């Protein structure tokens, strides 16, 4: 490969990385905005429940529940968004 083609490849990869970083930043901002709208007591309560369940289920059970939750993340994000955003009247 010539130096010019390698430079072009690097530029293309840099542009793709920039787009991916921008999308990640937008998702992070959206997630933070959603979390700011949720009452902190809900977050503490859910954290407490999650901790109790993981202690009760043991390591393997907690891992199974965590992996299922990770797979269902998109559904939960959509539900949280629909729950916190009120339609404008």
Q: Could you walk me through the main structural features you see in this protein, from its secondary elements to its overall organization?
A:
With about 90 residues, the protein is mainly α. It folds into two domains: about 1-35; about 40-89, no CATH class. It has helices at about 5-35, 40-70, 75-85. It is elongated, with a radius of gyration of 20 Å. The protein starts with a helix and ends in a 5-residue tail after the last helix. The mean pLDDT is about 80.
In brief:
The protein is mainly α and 89 residues long. The chain contains three helices and no strands.
List the keywords.
89 residues; 2 domains; single chain; mainly alpha
Question: How is the secondary structure organized here?
Answer:
Elements: H1 3-37, H2 40-71, H3 73-84
Q: Helical percent range?
A: over 70%
The run of helices and strands is HHH
Radius of gyration: 20 Å
Mean pLDDT: 82
Termini Cα gap: 60 Å
The assembly state of the depicted protein chains is: single chain
Instruction: Based on Cα principal axes, name the global outline.
Output: elongated
The fraction of residues assigned to DSSP E strands is under 5%
Number of domains: 2
List segments where confidence is low: pLDDT < 50 over at least 5 consecutive residues: none
